[in-house]
Amino acid sequence: MRKVSLYCGFFGQMMGALAMTRGMMNNVQINQQIFRESTVKSTRHPRAPTLEDVARNAGLSPMTVSRALNTPQLVRPKTVEKVMLAVRATGYIPNAMAGGLASRRSKLVAVVVPQINNNMFVDTIQALSDELARRGYHMLLCVAGYTEQTEAELVATLLSRRPDGVVLTGIHHTTELKKVILNAAVPVVEIWDLTPTPLDMLVGFSHERVGQATAQYLLRKGYRRPGLLWTSDSRAAQRKQGLCDVFASCISKGLPQVDVPLPASLALGRSGLSQLLGEGTFDVIVCSSDTLAQGAIMEAESRGMRVPQDLAVIGFGDLDFAASNRPTITTISVDRRAIGQQAASLLAERIEQQPCKAPIIDIGFHLVERESA
Amino acid sequence: MRKVSLYCGFFGQMMGALAMTRGMMNNVQINQQIFRESTVKSTRHPRAPTLEDVARNAGLSPMTVSRALNTPQLVRPKTVEKVMLAVRATGYIPNAMAGGLASRRSKLVAVVVPQINNNMFVDTIQALSDELARRGYHMLLCVAGYTEQTEAELVATLLSRRPDGVVLTGIHHTTELKKVILNAAVPVVEIWDLTPTPLDMLVGFSHERVGQATAQYLLRKGYRRPGLLWTSDSRAAQRKQGLCDVFASCISKGLPQVDVPLPASLALGRSGLSQLLGEGTFDVIVCSSDTLAQGAIMEAESRGMRVPQDLAVIGFGDLDFAASNRPTITTISVDRRAIGQQAASLLAERIEQQPCKAPIIDIGFHLVERESA
DNA sequence: TTGTATGCGTTATCAT
DNA sequence: ATGATAACGCATACAA
Predict the structure, then answer these.
(1) Which of these, B321, B319, B327, B325, lies nearest to B373 by C-alpha position?
(2) Number of CB pairs < 8 Å for A and B?
(3) Between B26 and B247, where is the model more confident?
(4) Are A126 and B143 in contact (CB < 8 Å)?
(5) How many CA atoms does the CB half-sphere of B6 hold within 13 Å?
(6) Banded pLDDT at A357 (limits 50, 70, 90)
(7) Which of A106, A250, A344, A363 could form a disulfide linkage to A100, CB 3.0–4.6 angstroms apart?
(8) Where residue B353 falls among pLDDT bands split at 50, 70, 90?
(9) Which chain B residue is nearest to residue A320, measuring alpha carbons?
(10) Using alpha carbons only, how large is chain A's radius of gyration in Å?
(11) Does the pLDDT of residue A42 top 50, yes or no?
(12) pTM over 0.85
């Protein structure tokens, strides 16, 4: 299933070797002390075996061992064989800090998201992680909350790891962050948003157009008294902007709205609708996420209102429950996994100096008409 | 809100400095080229500024700069001042690979989970991330799926980063993994499970006892014809074991059961109940997660069955929607954030050689009686 | 309080 | 195809 398939360096080989020789593992001496004792200079702390230990064991130079592990095609097969034996005998595990220092490539990608426990982002993160792993990169994950300042602080600390690439959520950053990241000259992908002027590369979609499409659909369906159940992050704000722009052409007064804190939840959907219903009458509730929509639907039905006959509800995200909820939830579908997968691919290809594709990918979205609106 | 507060090294200071001088940032020269040109030996690649660049700029030795950044209390305040100015002038960002190589401490913690897009784990991961950040560690996150072999491969690659600590999900690992990790002599915390014999440290709870408690509760409430809606991961299997053990004392025949794949979803809850109802009659459906329970409830009600009068449903996890679902979902509550927070604390304290607390923390659980069962 | 010498474990580069 | 040497950027240990 999930396997490191493309990355054929040290671990690819060793895992193959381990798999083949698992039966004899008990006979193989894996003990650092043995090598410590045969070492000339004795250090206080017992060290992990190094290239030099492996080289000594194999009767080769450290450089040859390094090559056998990283670019085996440049080494005689017989020699590679000897090296692998020595690696297993010593229990050698490469030191990526030393390797990265020398090679100036860390095989590390830093990812900054506002939240992990947010149904919107987890799929993207998982896809990022999968694709990065497939390509031999590790993922440094940081949670920045929804403030630009926190993000800037985090990125500064992250850059000390000398990541080969950085993934940022959104397109709004402090000027310091931009300065620092441009100065570091590290490839960057911004995700989950769209702009003609990204820092570097971008994979996302237009939240404003999502809002517009939502409003157009609702108007077409005949809804004229919308109420908003909304969270306060900047991307939700953009969707609201698009929504209001379109509604404004048909509805004179501003849209009634209830704000809820992040993260969205079923409970907030329920309480939010309660509050909203106390402030007016509506024919449709537009929610900034499916989670809120599910809560709104539940609250409406608990009050004896039928959805969508008495009150329609529309969400955003097409989360997994939207298609099987009762009623099923009309929503905007976004390929969240694709965002992560494409972001990882863009970064990896840039890092590996492959011919650069379009640095701005609009992943798009589509409205899924279901029962709730 | 989320701030790096305890960790008072380089970035703590610099961010303070940046905050204070933000107004003048535009006037500050941050440009690597300038320093390249004043450097004696010219390298081909434009390098990021190093300690040496800062030292030269400040008229100090690199070692003093290093101290000013890492242990400012050992340096004269005036000198620290000079260093900070030079740091800002050069745009210096420490190289953690070089620092880690020299100090043998990476300030990195590797976290291995079966899935990210799983409502059970995200809260734990987020808490882990928060607590690690608070203590000045970065999180290397890897997704292993549910196979031990994949986990073993991942850990081998992760150890090449020389993490100061490792977090593993669960207590079942391949013998290779154990060998490798013990050989690396790296602190380990296993989470989300319980055993008297962890690899090293552990934060979790007994899934078997969860199953027992669930069964006892249901028997006490008078339910006698349970049906199981279950996923196939090993922790769910342990809960089932506990459940069956207790039910076995009262119910002679085995428990009817429908297995669903991971990750659990509302849709699987609905289809799973459909299947189950085709195979017998029940008074309660025991689900391996709240997500399945929510789906089962929805399916039952869509068939005109009232929950709990016609069919009771009990879940596991006390996910955020459980308390506000309609009906509210009776479930087992686990402090998922605490698992992450405690795991991070245990690791950090061990890494920093503080007096070792109990290395096995049973985080416990409690049954939350609500409407659904 | 500051500076010097040395080593951390690897890879780039050049030589053989 | 293999080896020798010199970085890589920093912190430890010790000296002043």
Answers:
(1) B327
(2) 204
(3) B247
(4) yes
(5) 10
(6) confident
(7) A106
(8) confident
(9) B265
(10) 27
(11) no
(12) yes
Residue A205, SS3 per DSSP:
coil
DSSP string for residues in A68-84: HHH-GGGS-HHHHHHHH
- Nucleotides in chain C with any atom closer than 7 Å to protein CB: 1-5, 7-13
Alpha-carbon gap, residue B160 to B341, rounded angstroms: 25
Check whether residue B345 has its CB closer than 7 Å to nucleic acid strand C: no
- Quickly list DSSP for B325-373: SSSPPBEEE--HHHHHHHHHHHHHHHHTTPPP--SEEE---EEE--S--
Residue type, A193: D
At the topology level, CATH places domain B51-102 in 434 Repressor (Amino-terminal Domain) (1.10.260)
Using alpha carbons, select from B256, B207, B265 the residue that is nearest to residue B231.
B265
**CB-CB: which of B31, B184, B294 is closest to A48?**
B184
Determine the Cα–Cα distance for residues A349 and A184; give it in Å rounded to an integer: 18
Contact B94 A122 (CB under 8 A): no
Query: The domain A106-205+338-362: what is its CATH number?
Result: 3.40.50.2300
Mean pLDDT of chain B: 89
Cα gap B317→A41, rounded to integer Å = 54
- Terminal alpha carbon distance of chain B: 38
* Residue B134, SS3 per DSSP: helix
Tell me if B92 sits within 8 A of B30, measured CB to CB: no
Burial class (CB in 10 A: 0-12, 13-18, 19+), B27: exposed
Angstrom distance (rounded) from CA B337 to CA B13? 29
Domain B207-333 belongs to what architecture?
A: 3-Layer(aba) Sandwich (3.40)
Backbone phi, psi, residue B330, to 5°? -70, 135
- Is A50's CB less than 7 Å from nucleic acid strand D? no
Distance CA A247, CA A241 (A): 10
Least confident of A18-27, A247-256, A356-365, B243-252: A18-27
At B12, is the pLDDT very low, low, confident or very high (cuts 50, 70, 90)? low
A207-333 has the same fold as A51-102: no
**pLDDT by residue (tens digit) across B277-292?**
999 999 999 999 999 9
Q: Which position has the higher pLDDT, A17 or B122?
A: B122
Per-residue pLDDT for A30 more than 50? no
Q: pLDDT tens digits for A128-181?
A: 999 999 999 999 999 999 899 999 999 999 999 999 999 999 999 999 999 999
Domain ranges of chain A: 51-102, 106-205+338-362, 207-333
> Which residues on B lie below 8 Å from A4 (Cβ)?
153, 157
Q: Which tokens hold the place of A342?
A: 């494409």
